[in-house]
Amino acid sequence: MSKQIYFAVPKALVKSIKTAFESKQLLDKSQKISSIKLAGAEHASHCLVPTTVLLTEDSDHDFEELKTSILCDNGIANLASQISISAQLVTFPDPRGVGVNPLVKAALRWINSLPGELFASNEERSLLAEEFPKTYSFYHPMLLLPLTTFQTPRWQQLLKKIDPEQLQNLFKQISLPLGATHIARNARIPLLLNPAEDVDDASENTLRQPIDLQPLFGDFGNISSSAESPADSDFRKAFWVQAKQNGIYQTWAPIHTMFSRGNISEKARLLKLSSLRAPLLNPANSTAVDLYSGIGYYSFCYAAAGVRTVLCWELNPWSVEGARRGAKANGWQFLVATEANLELIREDAQGERKLMMFAEDNKLALGRVNRIRNQVPPIRHVNLGLLPTSRDSWVTAVEALDPRLGGWIHVHENIGVKDVEKTTVTIVQQFKHIAGKTASRAVECQHVERVKSFSPKVVHCVLDIWISGHSPN
Fold this sequence. Notes:
Helix content is about 30%, strand content about 25%. It contains 14 helices and 20 strands. The chain starts with a strand and ends in a 6-residue tail after the last strand.
């Protein structure tokens, strides 16, 4: 719930205040300016002027400072001694479908503050509010609006009529109920960078950069910062957000790194995975490998479940930095592994639970694993979290598992809704072929998890594939 700011103004000054507030879209035109009688006065000598300024209910503002700031911004600071300020809990009109949605209510108040000549009728104001998105994500301190925001013809027409300052005022109003400092519109992660008419000329978005995310409000940092080789100063200047899912903190820079809210169910499943529980497996005496770590989407789940060592591979340096910050927030040791400090990893591998990040192509992973295999607990889990497929890493995943004990590979794959069973059989056969190249090993799919719909006819699945250790001679 929010609080709306009002000014008690002597009647003689109402016209001046109204004119000043209208010029900055600060006058709430959905309410009338009403006469009021101040405490101790015999007559109604003042008027209550409603503004479009909203504060969160628990905000701790100095109202005198706020009053002075607003009046200064409007060039009428000289009237401050004659005007008083107050705040009231907001009550909004309720167009169809608005309900108690705080963003839609804030948007409606902004719509009602706009000049009447922008609208064909008063009904159009309510229709615009009904078309404002009712779903959103909030990752402190960023409000993320859905892809469909402002895409209706009615909103498109309104945006053509207003100026940038008016639009920024809208974003300011909808930021207040959640205490957001930044707003962006979401977008899909493209598989290609700068796609051309000839797809063969486009480069693959290997780093899964959110290049189509649209910042709307607030400073998101230098969008042009090199994604492949950012300096420490780029990290310091960047805008970072944080989310807590299943008790685990994750941190990322929105314009440089993707984040998928829809994978929360799979993260929760990993935390309770039967194959991570004693006596089947003692996580404190095991290692997990995540070949597509990102900011720690799944890597952190293994750490939280008690796995002592998690070996991670990630190409995007912004994701590596996000993982470092997230690990720190969770209280876990985190080390970016390089050729220079690989010996340090080997010497320290038997210490307390930690994450080791290899900021390199996972094609190098098997060589790294083999060099330190005897210095870390047995590798019992390998996570392959790349969509639409992680097929290029299947051989690495099989060979990374502990050769004596075997383990589980968690294969993420986009599969046609009607083809899940058939595709599962095919994938298991392919893993049997890979595992049988060097030794006789049993392979079976123990579970298929349908995580979320990827598109109307495609579902994101995770296959839990068990592969045994090598048969004794």
